[in-house]
Amino acid sequence: MLESNQARIGKKKSLLMFAGLTACGILINILGARLNVWFKLPFYLDNIGTILTALVGGYLPCIAVGFLYNIIAGIGDNMTTYYCFVSVLIAWAAAFFARTGWLTKFPKVLAAVLTFAVFGGIGGGILTWFLYGLSSGEGAAGMLAQNIVSITGMSRFTADLTANFLIDIADKAISTAAALLLWKLLPKRFIAYCGVFKEQIAFFSGSSSNVKRKKLSLRAKVLLLVGVSSTLVAVSAVTVCILQYHHATIDKYIDEGRRVTAMMARNIDPDRLDIYIEKGRDDEEYADIEDMLYSVNDSVPDVTYIYVYKITEDGTTVVFDLDTPQLKADKHGDRLEHNITMRQQLDDFLAGKEIEPVITNDEYGWMLTVYQPLGEGDNLCYAAADMSMERMRGNEVSFLTRLISLFIGFLSLIMIFAMWISDRFITEPINRITEATNDFAYDTAEAREESVERLRDLNIHTGDEIENLYTAILKTTSDTMGYIGEVQEKGEQISKLQNGLIMVLADMVESRDQCTGDHIKKTAAYTKIIMEQMKREGIYAEQMNDGFIDDVVHSAPLHDIGKIHVPDAVLNKPGRLTEEEYKQIQEHTTAGGEIIDRAIASISGDSGYLREARNLAAAHHEKWNGKGYPLGLKGEEIPLSARIMAVADVFDALVSRRSYKTPFSVDKAIEIIVKDAGTHFDEKVVKAFIDAEDEIRRVAEENSEE
Predict the structure, then answer these.
(1) Distance CA 451, CA 480 (A)
(2) Residues with Cβ < 8 Å from 103, sequence gap 6 or more?
(3) How far apart, in whole angstroms, are the C-alpha atoms of residue 151 and residue 154?
(4) DSSP 201
(5) How far is residue 209's CA from residue 171's CA, in Å, rounded to a whole number?
(6) Residue-wise burial string across 459-482, b where 16 or more C-beta atoms lie within 10 A, e elsewhere
C-alpha cells in the first residue's frame, strides 16, 4: 500500500512538472512576441520558450508548448492559430537536436538554426500563401519580397519564400541564442529533474527494454490506431466542411448577384431602353444610372462585372457595361454574339423568363452569372452580375489550409500524448512483466522462489487491466510452484501418452499440405459459425443440436486427413494438375474415410465424434447436384456435416493463398458461394452462411494473408 501511494505521488509530481514546464515555455514565447511588437523588430521571437523546453524537458512538453502557444496567441490574432503546424514542426526539430546534443555544440547548432528557418521561413511562407488564398501576406517579409521582385524579377511566390527564409534565419538564430542563455542560467538540479520526460519518450533511440519485439510493436499499433482514427475523422470532417463552405459560398454569390440585379431593375426604366442604347451618357438618366452601377460594383467586392444586355434572336445589344481593371467595357449599342448560356437558353431569354444562375468558363474567365429580366416585348432586356469563381477557389484554399494546419497541430499533440501514455502505462509495464517471466527458472526450488520474488518486486500499479494481468500472473506463478511436484510425478505417464500421439500423427505431419495448419483452424471456425446460425434459424432442427455441433466442430480438422497419402509434389504443385494428379488428389476423400474407419474399429462403443469425422473426410467434396466425388452423392444423400464443410472448405480455399493461386477478396468469395447455391452447395446451408456474414468476415479478416 505504501509503495502504491508513493507511485501515485510520483505521478502527480510528474504531471505538475509537465504543466509548469509547459506554462513557462508558453509565457516565454508570448514575452518574445511582445518584445518584437514593442521594439518594432522585423522578427517574431516566438520560439524561444519552445527551444528552451526542448533543452530541458524533451519532446512531450516541447511539442505541447509549440502547439498551445499558437492556440493562445490566436485569441488576439486569429491567423496566428493556423501556424500551429509550423510551430509543431519546429518543436519536433528542437527536441530532436536537443536529444542529439546539436543545440549545445558549435558548429552543429548552425544546422539546427537552418532547419528551424526552413520550417519557419519556407514552410511558414508556403502556409501563408495558401492561408491568404494563393497570395502573399504583409509585414517586413512582404516589403522585402517586393524589393526582391524589383531587383531580380523573380515571381512573387518565390520572392516571398526567399524573404521569409532570410528573415527567419536571423529570427531563429536570436531565438536559439536566447534559449541557450536561459538554459545555462537554470540550476542543473532543476534540469536533471525535468529530464524525466526525456527518459519517458525516446523516439529515435528506441525503448530501453531488452524484450525482443515483432515488426510492429504495441506502441506502434497504438500510434497507428490513434493516427489513422484521428485522420479518418479529420478527413471526414474537413470534407464535410469544405463542401458546406463551397455550397455556402455559391449561395452567397447568388444572393449578392440577385441583390445587385434587383437594385439595377429598380433603377433602370425599360421603356427608355432605345434611348439608353442610342445616347449612352449623353442621356442624363443613363449617366446617373451608370455612376450608380460603378458605385455598386465598388461596394460589392464579390461582383466582378455588371452589365445590361438586350437580347434578340440574331445577337446581343449592349445597354450598360462597366470598365474594370480586368476588362475594358463594351460601348452602349455594340452588337455582340450570344454567349454560350444565351445560345443554350435563347428561347427563355427571348420570352423574358427567369434564368437560373449559371457557372461558365470562357474568355471572360470562370464566372457565376445571375440574370434578372427587365421589361417586356421590344423593351425586354436582362441585368446581369458576374462573380469570379477563381476568387472563391482562393478562399476555399485558404479555408482548407486553415483546417489542415489545425488538424496537423492537434494530431501532433495527440500523438505525443498517446506515445507517452502508451510507454508509461502500457508497453513498459508489459515489457517488465515479459522480461521477468522470460527469465523464470524451474530447475530447482530455490531458483523458482527467486523467480517469483523478482516478479513480485516489479510492483506494477497502473490501476487498470495491466495491473490485473500482473496480479493474475503473479498469483498463477506462485500457485504453479505447488503443482510442480505433482507434474513431475505424472511426467512419465504424460510422456508415454505424448509418444503414442506422436506415432499416430507422424505420418500426417510428414505428408501434410503446407497450408493445412491454418486451413483446418479456419474451416473449423466457419463450420461452427454456420451451424450456430442454422440452429438459431431452425434449419435442419432435428439434427442441429449442441451434441452434433460439438462433434462436427471437433472433427472438422480431420476432414483432409486423407491427404497424408497424396505425394507432396502433387499436393503443393504450383501449376495445373494433370488428369492423373487430379485423380490422386480426389482419392484423399476415400483414403480419409478409410483411415477414420480403422480408428473407429480400434475403439469400443459408438463415437459421434469419429462418425462425423468420417462423414467429413469422405464426403466434403460431394456436390448437391450429384457431380461431386468420390461417390457422386446427391442432395440429402450427402451427410449434413459434409454439406456444411463443403461451404466452409470452398470459402476458405477462395480467400486463402495457395501455391497455385492468389487469394480472392471476401466479397468475391461470398459471391461465388451464393452463385453455386443449389448446384454445388445446399441452399439452406448457404442461407445460414450469408446470414452470418459479419462473423464470417471477422474470421476471414483476422486470418487475412494480404
Answers:
(1) 12
(2) 51, 54, 55, 94, 97, 109, 112, 176, 180
(3) 8
(4) -
(5) 40
(6) ebbbeeebeeebeebbeebeeeee
Cα 512 from Cα 504, distance rounded (Å): 14
* All cell numbers assigned to 117: 528557418
- The residues with which 318 forms a beta bridge, in sequence order, are 309
The residue whose grid cell reads 490574432 is 77
Q: 10 Å Cβ neighbour count for 484?
A: 12
Per-residue pLDDT tens over the stretch 652-683: 889 887 766 788 899 999 999 999 999 999 99
Q: Is the pLDDT of residue 500 over 70?
A: no
CA 50 to CA 29: how far, in whole Å?
7
pLDDT at 561 exceeding the cut of 50: yes
Phi, psi angles (nearest 5°) of residue 500: -65, -45
Q: What angle do CA 243, 247, 249 make, to 5 degrees?
A: 115
CA distance 318 to 333: 5
Contacts of 383 (CB under 8 A, 6+ apart): 261, 264, 265, 268, 306, 307, 308, 371, 372, 374
| Cell numbers at 131, concatenated | 492561408
What cell does 49 get? 520558450
Q: Which is nearest to 297 in space by CA: 328, 324, 270, 268? A: 324
State how far Cα 573 lies from the chain centre: 40
At residue 204, the pLDDT reads 35
C-alpha cell at 552: 462436427
The dihedrals phi and psi of 71, each to the nearest 5 degrees, come to -65, -45
* 216, 218, 461 from 207: Cα distances, Å: 14, 12, 20
Q: Which amino acid is located at 40 in the chain? A: K
Closest CA to 356 of 341, 343, 366: 341
pLDDT (tens digit per residue) in 384-397: 999 988 878 878 88
Beta strands in 122-178 (DSSP E): none
**Secondary element (H or E) of residue 382:** strand 381-388
Express each pLDDT in 309-365 by its tens digit: 999 999 999 999 999 888 899 999 999 999 888 999 999 999 999 999 999 888 788
